[in-house]
Structure formats: C-alpha cells, structure tokens
Specification:
The complex is a heterodimer of chains A (345) and B (291). Chain A has 345 residues and is of the alpha/beta class. Chain A contains 12 helices and 13 strands. In chain A, a hairpin with a 2-residue loop joins strand 11 (268-273) and strand 12. The longest helix of chain A has 18 residues, at 186-203. The radius of gyration of chain A is 23 Å and the shape is globular. Chain A starts with a helix and ends with a helix. The longest helix of chain B is centred in the middle third of the chain and has 31 residues, at 166-196. Chain B has one domain (24-285). The chains are: A alpha/beta (345), B mainly alpha (291). The A-B interface holds A 5, 18-19, 46-47, 62, 65, 68-72, 74, 81, 86-91, 93-96, 98, 100, 103, 105, 107-110, 114, 118, 121-123, 125-126, 129, 132, 136, 150, 170-173, 202-205 and B 1-2, 4-6, 8-11, 13-17, 19, 31, 34-35, 38, 41-42, 45-46, 117-118, 120-121, 123-128, 284, 287-291.
Chain lengths: 345, 291
C-alpha cells in the first residue's frame, strides 16, 4: 500500500490509436491512424489535485476515458488504485467518481433527491454513510432548497453542483471532472472551485480535472499537465508553466485622453485605440508595481488585467520547442514540433 | 469532519473476471429494476401524457388486427387458415413481442447514446451496461401492445375448436417464453450492431417489427424462400409457427419433421447465447474505438 500512495494513478507509455476512415469518394475510403494519446507516462499520488489542460482534440478526454475504463488503451500500462481500469471497469467504478461537464447523469424529470436515492442503492452505500455524505454535499454545495426540484428546472450551475454531489455519495477515492466549469457563471464557478478545494483538504480525495479555464487550475490545482497532439508537453506547477511558455499577461489601461504609448518596462504597448492602451508583460511578473508606476505617471481612468489564454501559452511552448527541439521533452522530434506549429498557427 | 479516506470504501467486490454468470445476471436484473422504476416515476410526472400514449399504443395495435378482420369479411380463409387460427398465431406473436418490446425495446436507442456520447456515463457505473441500456427509457405505455395481444389470443382460444391435451396447453406459455427470448435476442444483437453502425436502428426494426408482422400470418401465405429464411437463418419460425401448427394440427411448412415443434426453447437458448456474444463483441469494439 506504500507504493499505492505515491503511484495512486500510474501511466507507463500509454497509447491510444484510433483507426479513422475518411471518405475519399463514393464508397471509397482511406484508412489512417490517429494517435490520440501518444506514449504518455505520469504518476499521481493519493490526495493530489491535478489539472489536465490542452486544446480541443489534444487527447484529454481520451486519457480520462482510459483512466475510467471506458476505453481500452492500445498500448502501455495503466493502473488506478492498483486496478487495470479496462479489465476491471465495474470494480473500479465503485472507487471513482466521474463528472462529465456537458452530460448530466441526473434524472431530468425527477426531483434531484431521487437521483441520489438511485445512487444510494446502485452503489450499495451503507445508510449512515449515504446520509452523512448527502448532508455534507447539501451543505457545502448549497443544495438544500433544490433537492425537491425536478432537475429540468435547475440552472446550469445548480445542475453542475448536483452532478458533483451525485459523483461523491459513494466516497470515491478519486474524482475526475471533465470541464466542470464550462458554461457556468462567475459565482457558480467560484463555488465549484471552493468545494473541490475543501473536498481535497478534508477527505484527501484525489482530483483530476480537465479544463479550458486557466483560473480553474490557478485556484484548484497545485500541479498542471499540458497535453497536445497526444503528448505530455509539461508536467509541474502552474507558475513554472508560464516561465516555460514565456506567456504574457495583458494590462488594459484607459487614460483620460489620447496619449503616446506608455513607457513602463518590462511591459510594452502592443495596441493603442484612442485613450485605451494594451500593455503586455511577462506572466511571472507581479502586476501591482507596474500598475503603481503607470498610475503615478499617467492620468488613469480605469484598468484591468487579462490572464494569458491557455491556448496562447501552449502555442508559445510549441514555438519554443521547435526552436530548441527536444529540450522540454526528450521524446519530441523536429517533425512533430513542426507539425504542431502548423496546427496552432 | 471525517479523517481523509485512505482505504477503499466498504468495497469487497470481486474482480470483474471472477463474476459468475449467475451473479452478473442477478446484478443486471437488480440494476434493471432500479432504472426501470426511475423511468416509470419519470413518466408519471406527466400522467395525462402517459394515459394518452398508452391508449394510443393500444388503439394503434387494435387497428392492426381490425385490418385482418376486414380482410376476412371478404375471404373465408387466408392461406388455408380461418380467422380464429390466424388470431391464434397473431395473438401469440403479438404478446411475445409486446412483452419483449416492453422489457428491452429501448435497445434501439443505443445508437443515439453512442453518437451523443452519453453511453460513457453508463460505463462508469458499477452495474452491467446491457441492463442499463435495456432499461433506458423504460416505457410502460408498451403494455398497450401486450394487452391487445392477450385479447386476440383469448379470443382465438375461446373460439377455436381444439382438442386440448396437457402438452398442447403447455405449448402456449412455452411459445410466449421462447418467442419472447428469440425477439429479445434480435433486439440485443441489433443493439450490438449499433456500436458499429450507429444509425442501424432501422435495420433492427426490419427484423423486430417486421418479424412480428410476418409471424402474425400463417406461413402458407409467404413464398417458400422467405419461410426458409425465417426458419434456418433468422429462426423467427420458432416464435409461433412451428409450435402453433402442432397445437392447431396443421401441416408444417417446408415438410419439416414433427419434433421441430418442440425445438423452440432450444432455438431460443441458442439465439440468446449468440446475442450475448454479439453484445460483448460490440461493447469491446466501442471500448477500443470510442465511437
């Protein structure tokens, strides 16, 4: 069980290859292989919170599907809590919770509580355990007034909270969330993130989430993995990702009147539109001193900071990698890098 | 609050490959009951709509038999069979099919679940997928067809002049059971095919709904090749034709020997085994292709 704690989730050169048939003419088809996941290796310790990011079609969902046993890997070795998911999917199902952001598992026409009662029986959760977990989720996710409401009448944010509770009633040791905040308003997003942090702190539940929203990662995960074209591009803390990707944040400044471009190194003006100016500065720098310097020297009306877009970060990482081919990931060849740059540009 | 969970929760479950077939079946039926009950409750959220669709289902199938009665207002016999005899065939197949349609009719929606990706939500639950797919959108309104089938069968039994022997009496439930299993196998195999071709539900309908329509009539009205096909290829002839012709003391089609009337349960068991294999193959394909 000692190794289990450190290698709670373990992937060794896991691959998933799909055969894709493309129509090239009437009844004529061309077959080719798509490597959705290309030799990925990583380990997640029990109790970690990991963000899994990457552009659409990068292989995030395919990885989650292999981790949950939905898909069988084409190659490599994969273990979750010592179980081979594809061989013992049903047994693993009792120990994991899964939330698909865009597919609810709740019963549409029935009150929320009915879906929970089904989980209670389907997972054979002991009564006391069920009641304790339900009470806890109801309290922390603020579901008290919603339990008797038919799911179809819930807002998207309420339903997502309901789905998260449904995935946790059987005390899963690991919770997978596929785009848990997609389409949610700011308040709902904040509530979901706070809940996940609490869950991890109090229960030690391992959390693995995929997202497009960098703030999900910033506020929830200590560790981030970037995947693109089926390959693991980065694995480490978020702050270092910005360094690796040399990403930039943007400061949008509204001045009282039109002025020549602001001078405030290391920031540089990238765009001017009347009294509004856009300044780019390294994401690793703090915004506060920069704002203070600008406020002291210029007639400031309003300002805002924009976080770097995750797609931009990854695009930058690619550009880096093509230049210094192979430094970030010793597996990465020039050919792959070139192909990727083409795809993101 | 509770200390961090470091051990598996109350779970002493057996690895999947150690599940005995009996335990799988029991788990499957348990899951089926729970999910079907949820769908019944869902339906009851719209009681009026439920009452109307059930009545509509019943009325629709009644009209189906009325069409046959109208035919008999013009002719005395159809392929050599009287109205009560045709009603006997019709009632048997309609009841058997109705029961199976009620139980697993939703399998034809599997293709849609594969297309929109919602099948994945079923695969992460600790219960057999087949049970979940079969119970999906369980619709009590389908009792309409069963009711109609039983009424027609009751009429036939009441009117027919049959010298009932214990064996002939026994044949009726045997036919309903094995007929149901044969249709069920077609539903499951059709569902398995939808893992590969997601818009194949029409092909499946041809065999299920088409199959019932076929066996509602005596075999003598069809071309020999067709009768041969539904005897030896897709054994729908064993749903009711062969056993019912024994009860009615009619000659068998294709000069088949007398014992074939009693082969229905065996044929049904064989069909179920094949359908089970097809289902496993289909699910395996899905899990390796993801589409």
């Amino acid at each position: 069980m000692v190794s289990d704690a450190h290698d709670f989730i373990r992937l060794d050169r896991v691959e998933k290859v799909f055969q894709v048939r493309r129509k090239t003419g009437f009844l004529r088809r061309e077959r080719h292989e798509v490597r959705a996941v290309d030799s990925i290796s990583f380990a997640v310790a029990r109790g970690e919170m990991v963000g899994y990011i990457g552009p659409n079609g990068a292989g995030k969902s395919t990885t989650i599907k292999m981790l949950t046993g939905i898909l069988t890997p084409s190659g490599g070795r994969l273990r979750v809590a010592g179980i081979d998911p594809s061989r013992e999917r049903t047994r693993l199902a009792r120990r994991i919770g899964v939330v698909f952001g865009q597919r609810t598992t709740l019963w549409w026409d029935l009150p929320l509580i009915d879906s929970y009662r089904l989980m209670h029986r389907m997972y054979r959760i002991p009564d006391a355990r069920y009641r304790e977990n339900l009470d806890r989720c109801v309290q922390l996710l603020d579901l008290g007034d919603l339990l008797e409401v038919p799911v179809r009448q819930l807002s998207l944010g309420q339903r997502m909270r309901g789905d998260i509770a449904a995935a946790l009633l059987h005390d899963p040791e690991v919770l997978y969330l596929d785009e848990p905040t997609i389409g949610l308003d700011v308040i709902s997003k904040a509530r979901v993130r706070e809940f996940l942090r609490d869950l991890n702190a109090e229960r030690g539940t391992t959390v693995l989430l995929t997202t497009h929203d960098l703030q999900d990662i910033e506020q929830v995960c200590r560790r981030v993995m970037v995947i693109d074209h089926g390959r693991l591009m980065y694995d480490g803390p978020l702050a270092s990702l910005h360094e690796v990707g040399e990403s930039e944040r943007t400061l949008v400044v509204d001045l009282e009147r039109e002025l020549p471009p602001i001078e405030a190194a290391p920031a540089r003006v990238v765009r001017v539109e009347g009294p509004r100016q856009w300044l780019a500065f390294p994401a690793s720098e703090s915004a506060a001193p920069l704002v203070a310097r600008i406020a002291a020297a210029y007639p400031l009306v309003d300002l805002s900071v924009r976080e770097p877009d995750i797609e931009a970060v990854i695009a930058k990482m690619y550009a880096e990698r093509t230049e210094r081919s192979g430094q970030v990931n010793e597996e990465g060849g020039v050919g792959r890098g070139g192909q990727a740059t083409e795809a993101v540009s | 609050m509770a200390s961090p969970t470091t051990t598996g929760p109350y779970d002493s479950s057996t690895p999947d490959h150690l599940y005995t077939p009996y335990r799988r079946l029991r788990e499957g039926l348990r899951a089926y009951r729970m999910i079907a009950a949820m769908w019944i409750r869902s339906t009851m959220a719209y009681r009026l709509s439920f009452a109307m669709t059930t009545f509509g289902n019943f009325a629709g199938t009644v009209l189906d038999f009325v069409a046959i009665m109208l035919m008999f207002s013009q002719v005395d016999r159809l392929g050599g069979y009287t109205l009560p005899e045709v009603a006997f065939l019709y009632g048997l197949t309609s009841t058997a099919f109705g029961l199976v349609d009620l139980a697993v009719g939703s399998m034809e929606r599997l293709g849609r679940r594969v297309r929109d990706g919602t099948l994945d939500t079923l695969l992460v639950r600790p219960v057999p997928v087949l049970a979940q797919v079969a119970a999906d959108r369980f619709a009590l309104r389908r009792l309409g067809r069963v009711t109609q089938g039983l009424l027609v069968l009751g009429y036939a039994v009441a009117v027919l002049d049959i010298a009932w022997t214990p064996l002939k009496v026994l044949m009726v439930p045997v036919m309903l059971l094995s007929g149901g299993l044969i249709f069920g196998a077609v539903f499951v195999a059709g569902g398995a095919f939808q893992f590969v071709a997601q818009d194949a539900s029409e092909v499946q309908n041809a065999f299920t709904y088409g199959g019932t329509t076929l066996t509602q009539y005596p075999p003598t009205v069809f071309a020999k090749e067709l009768v041969r096909g539904v005897t030896f290829v897709l054994p729908l002839a064993f749903v009711n034709w062969l056993p019912a012709l024994y009860v009615l003391e009619r000659p068998y089609p294709l000069d088949l020997p007398g014992w074939t009337a009693f082969a229905s349960p065996l044929v049904a068991a064989g069909c179920c085994a094949l359908a089970g294999l097809a289902w496993r193959a289909g699910l395996r394909t899905y899990r390796s292709t993801g589409s």
